[in-house]
Write a structure and sequence with these properties.
The protein has 275 residues and is α+β, with helices and mostly antiparallel strands. It has 13 helices and 6 strands. It folds into 2 domains: 143 residues, 2-Layer Sandwich (Beta Polymerase, domain 2); 118 residues. A hairpin with a 7-residue loop joins strand 3 and strand 4. The radius of gyration is 21 Å and the shape is globular.
Length: 275
């Protein structure tokens, strides 16, 4: 964090620490990772045994905000505001300890994959900074998350995401081909995005890295993954450049080239059968 954001972070954390139900407050995102820019916000994760009341949430936001939105429960329960002192956007997400423990058990114990973003919550816990930890619970949670990448999880992610790239009858590529035939550019964009979500889930599994989330994926993969498909950056940028008319029909050819390179890497790593 910079000096401009340290003060609002400390004040926000102190406000939540005064609520007895709150067990921990962690800061994550680009401010912690050191990759922040002028568009970056402060991402707080408030872990509480019982729901923080809307009255308390509203009072905290009002105390610090020039503009506030309380109850933005579109993805996770959360609030957002613009900090009066620094002008920084504050994002607060509310979780229970049981909820995050279950997400970690799903990947680290049961080795269950998702369609895209399988290990994002694991990455979130590993790469967050606890700013308040009432009983040491969050410290223990992070310690339990510090373990080698499970090989059964690696294979489960590939088994879940690889067939739907282009092998299955309703694969992303099959859907994109139909969308091209219909001149449905919106569907093409939607399915290419989904295909890339599974592509990156596979790529981070190959490299035994928890998935970092949806931002700067190509940059993160290029700098942190030691095993990447041949010409990955060029191929992805080519695919993205052919998703709009009048170049849309070429997207199928370029996706096949992208997936050919991924398959070659998977075969080389003995993670899918040859042929």
């Amino acid at each position: 964090m910079t000096l401009a954001t340290e003060a609002p972070a400390a004040l926000v954390v102190a406000a939540f620490a005064n609520i007895p139900e709150v067990d921990a407050v962690a800061l994550a995102g680009s401010k912690v990772a050191g990759s922040a820019d002028e568009q970056s916000d402060l991402d707080f994760y408030v872990y509480a045994r019982a729901p923080v009341t809307m009255a308390d949430r509203g009072a905290i936001a009002t105390r610090f905000a020039t503009r506030r939105e309380v109850g933005n429960d579109f993805w996770e329960p959360g609030d957002e505001w613009i900090d009066r002192q620094s002008g920084c956007q504050i994002d607060v997400m509310y979780r229970t300890p049981v909820w995050i423990e279950e997400h970690l058990d799903r990947v680290l114990v049961r080795h269950e994959a998702s369609v895209g973003y399988s290990t994002c919550f694991w990455h979130n816990v590993l790469h967050s900074t606890p700013l308040f930890d009432r009983s040491g619970w969050y410290r223990d949670l992070q310690a339990s998350a510090e373990r080698p990448y499970p090989q059964p999880l690696r294979r489960a992610i590939i088994a879940k995401n690889h067939p739907i790239l282009r092998q299955a009858l309703s694969s992303y590529l099959a859907q994109i081909e139909r969308a091209v035939q219909r001149s449905d550019s919106v569907s093409i964009q939607h399915r290419v995005t989904a295909l890339l979500a599974s592509y990156f889930d596979i790529l981070f599994a190959i490299n035994e890295l928890p998935h970092p989330g949806e931002k700067r994926l190509l940059q993160v993969a290029a700098t942190r993954c030691t095993k990447t498909p041949l010409n990955m950056e060029t191929q992805i940028n080519t695919v993205l450049g052919t998703t709009a008319w009048p170049t849309t029909p070429a997207v199928v050819e370029h996706i096949n080239a992208l997936l050919d390179s991924l398959d070659a890497l998977l075969v080389n790593e003995d993670l899918v059968p040859i042929g």
